[in-house]
Design goal:
Distance between the termini: 29 Å
GO molecular function: arginine-tRNA ligase activity
Motif ('HIGH' region): 128-138
Bound molecules: arginine
Strand content: 5-15%
Structural class: alpha/beta
Largest sheet: 4 strands, antiparallel
Radius of gyration: 28 Å
Helix content: 40-55%
InterPro entries: aa-tRNA-synth_I_CS (IPR001412), Arg-tRNA-ligase (IPR001278), Arg-tRNA-synth_N (IPR005148), Arg-tRNA-synth_N_sf (IPR036695), ArgRS_core (IPR035684), DALR_anticod-bd (IPR008909), Rossmann-like_a/b/a_fold (IPR014729), tRNAsynth_Ia_anticodon-bd (IPR009080)
CATH architecture of the domain at 469-578: Orthogonal Bundle
CATH topology of the domain at 469-578: Isoleucyl-tRNA Synthetase, Domain 1
Strand order of the largest sheet: 1-2-4-3
Main location: cytoplasm
Family: Belongs to the class-I aminoacyl-tRNA synthetase family.
Length: 587
């Protein structure tokens, strides 16, 4: 199969309308042709209405001129009718609609182009903290970031996945001291299993904290250990490395289960920037962006003020000489622009960090690291809520472990799949339940508008009906079963002389819009647009299948419909893939 970009019919018609506008009124060059799908024809354009107003002419006059401009010589347009006060109803030739289907089927990438080719995009996502359990708060960043990484990679971008692990800080000195004083307490993956390492470390950290608060002598030893770590004492640094490595194993096992793209190559934690913090600070001071204040170095915002009307500040270097979260993020943006030469930077974290990133971006602009040639976005998202509608906590009020959450969803999916397929052997049931359960978690997240909060409800998100991952997986599996019954034909000849039924026509247009949706995601960074598109596609398929027999149809209609099924199945599986969701052939 070749790789050829197939221009969506909607985009093609839009450019024809644009050209017609220029021919009719050259002064309107560049105007939006306002082409949409329509239920009166295939497409409609409302351009004449607003453009006529703009140049002070009657809309129906302009509309009728555009109609005659459009009616000449394009193989795609069958008919144009002006209607109402300046609408154009545009009907396409049957042949052009079928040709589109055939062209997409013939292409391994379904005709999707690479509009982001040549762009380097750094996506900062997931970023759990070493020696701490991955919790519900890391779910959204991990799956939203991963989906964006997949979409941009498909669109041709050079994507750098940056997993900004929280692997540095004074807490490690305390933890290392405690671990050394309690050699009997196990925490290595080899001793207790990969999934238990970080919870063991988390427990040791809490115990260390308690002793630190209660026992001044331990607190002193811990402080000495912090200094040892920062000054590169070998045994201390080795121990720190070991803690990081064990934690990374645990993160890796969650990533495997979630099926995200992150690998150890993408781990570029906070510690990576240590060596750059002095230079970053000096540069900010030299450029007059940062100032000394009370022994600390800070950047005072020129735009944002705090509650007492004083400027909001970023802490570049603390009074004690230490560096923190702000310092490191200033270093990330400097490094990613200057060293990685990124064209676009995305930081995927929850909405509560909006101010932090606003200040980081402002400082980076003032320092000249960020220019107009670089796009930067804080890809903010809402909170996952528990059944009580409040931020999700365990019954005891603790943080919810990500693994437990996934287990709950897989159990819910297992029950639902078993009910539908009572004869499924246990091993197969387990495999499908895992794909359905994980898919359901990801879909529930990615189908919600990013900025909104949503409730984590395993039984709702694994339902077979409604806008769920399971519904889409099922829709895909059902089409695959039709194709199995058709004998899994490899390529089928599409006869462009057939007139598609209305439901078939609607489905074909929906299939043809797939890459427009992907382009929108590249713009808006909103994967829910893809989720909703796939849901619409699955429903359009159902309407088609209810009214248009496939296997029982006569040739050449039968072959054409098999081709429709093929493109529908491939588009669904492909789209689910971009959401990081499996598309099993049976469910
Ligand atoms: N480690 C942080 C946390 O768990 C998230 C880091 C996000 N990325 C960044 N560059 N600040 O909340």
């Amino acid at each position: 199969m070749s790789a050829a970009t197939v221009v969506p019919l909607l985009a093609h018609v839009a450019s024809l309308v644009s050209e017609a506008i220029v021919r009719a009124r050259p002064q309107l060059a560049g105007a939006d042709p306002v082409v949409r799908r329509s239920d009166r024809a295939d497409f409609q354009s409302n351009a004449a209405l607003s453009l006529a107003k703009q140049i002070g002419e009657p809309p129906n006059q302009l509309a009728s001129e555009l109609t005659s401009e459009l009616s000449i010589g394009d193989a795609v347009i069958a008919q144009v009718q002006a209607s109402g006060p300046g609408f154009l109803n545009i009907t396409l030739t049957d042949a052009s609609i079928w040709a589109q289907l055939a062209a997409r089927l013939a292409d391994a990438r379904l005709g999707i182009g690479e509009p982001a080719a040549g762009q380097r995009i750094v996506i900062d996502y997931s970023a759990p903290n070493v020696a701490k359990e991955m919790h519900v708060g890391h779910l959204r960043t991990t799956i939203i970031g991963d989906s964006l990484a997949r979409v941009f990679t498909l669109l041709g971008a050079d994507v750098v996945r940056a997993n900004h692990l929280g692997d540095w800080g004074t807490q490690f000195g305390m933890l290392i001291q405690f671990i050394d004083e309690h050699p009997d307490q196990p925490w290595h993956a080899d001793d207790i299993g990969t999934d238990a390492t970080v919870s063991a470390l988390d427990g040791l950290y809490k115990a260390a904290r308690a002793q630190f608060d209660a026992d001044p002598e331990f607190a002193d030893r811990a402080r000495t250990r912090v200094v040892a770590l920062q000054s590169g004492d070998t045994t201390t640094v080795d121990r720190w490395r070991e803690i990081v490595a064990e934690s990374e194993k645990a993160f890796g096992s969650i990533y495997d289960r979630l099926g995200v793209l992150l690998t150890p190559d993408d781990y570029v934690g906070e510690s990576f920037y240590n060596s750059m913090l002095t230079d970053t600070t000096t540069e900010l001071l030299d450029k007059g962006v940062a100032v000394h204040s009370d022994g600390a170095v800070v950047v005072e915002s020129e735009h944002v003020t705090g509650p007492d009307d004083s400027p909001a500040v970023l802490m570049v270097r603390k009074r004690d000489g230490g560096y923190g979260y702000d310092s490191t993020d200033l270093a990330t943006i400097r490094y990613r622009t200057a060293n990685l030469h990124a064209d676009r930077l995305l930081y995927v974290t929850d909405s509560r960090q909006t101010l932090h990133f606003q200040l980081i971006f402002e400082a980076a602009r003032r320092a000249g690291w960020l220019t107009d040639a670089v796009d930067v976005d804080h890809v903010a998202y809402g909170t996952i809520l528990g059944p009580d509608g409040k931020p999700f906590k365990t019954r005891a009020g603790g943080t919810v472990r990500l693994m437990d959450l996934l287990d709950d969803a897989v159990a819910a999916a297992r029950a639902i799949v078993a009910e539908k397929n009572p004869d499924l052997p246990a091993a197969e049931l387990d495999a499908i339940a895992e794909q359905a359960g994980i898919g359901a978690v990801k879909y529930a997240d990615l189908s919600t508008s990013r900025v909104k909060d949503y409730m984590f409800d395993p039984s709702r998100m694994t339902a077979f009906n409604g806008n769920t991952g399971v519904y889409l997986q099922y829709a895909h599996a059902r089409i695959r079963s039709i194709l199995r019954k058709a004998g899994e034909p490899d390529t089928v000849a599409v006869d462009t002389a057939v007139t598609p039924e209305p439901a078939e026509r609607a489905l074909l247009f929906t299939l043809d819009e797939y890459d427009l949706v992907l382009a929108e995601i590249a713009q808006t960074l909103e994967p829910h647009r893809l989720a909703n598109y796939l849901y619409d596609l699955a429903r359009a398929f159902t309407t088609f299948y209810d009214t248009c027999p496939v296997l029982a149809a006569r040739e050449p209609v039968r072959s054409n419909r098999i081709a429709v099924c093929q493109l529908a199945a491939r588009t669904l599986a492909h789209g689910l893939g971009l959401l990081g969701i499996a598309a099993p052939v049976r469910l």
